[in-house]
Amino acid sequence: MSGKNVVTAASSVQCGKAPGHEGTVTAKGQTLLTIGGAGVLVETDLLAASIAGCKNPTLSSTNVPCSAVANVSAGSMSHCLTVGGKPVVVDAPLAGPTLGTPAGTLTMVDVKQNVLTAE
Fold it and tell me: Domain residues of the chain, as ranges?
């Protein structure tokens, strides 16, 4: 069985694929488990993350740039690896809506580590 890469605070996550939103998601990560000095992410880390530089397509004057992560899909969580009792976030499929109008969808650009995998 092949695992999925664990997402850390150093991973590149955006609020949508290019071309489109492309805002940078910045999350702190856990201090109990780090990879290369970057904290591993759990769901609450992404829910507390900020988004900067969103280029929400300017189709209308009612569009609002993404500012935060609204939710993280259950499929983005490990079934076997936890930190502090919370499942870690894995890179595929990383999904969830963001707070913007229209909402973006979390997109993994580069997980930036291949040391730790989980199912």
Answer: 4-109
The closest alpha carbon to 50, from 22, 28, 23, 26, belongs to: 26
Residue 19 pLDDT > 90, yes or no? no
User: How far is the C-alpha of 48 from the C-alpha of 43, rounded, in Å?
Assistant: 9
Nearest CA among 98, 100, 115 for reference residue 36: 115
Residues 6+ apart with CB under 8 A from 101: 56, 62, 63, 64
Q: What local confidence, expressed as pLDDT, does residue 59 receive?
A: 63
**CATH number of the domain at 4-109, please?**
2.60.200
- What pLDDT is recorded for position 24? 97
pLDDT category, 50, cuts 50, 70, 90? very high
**Secondary element (H or E) of residue 45:** helix 43-47
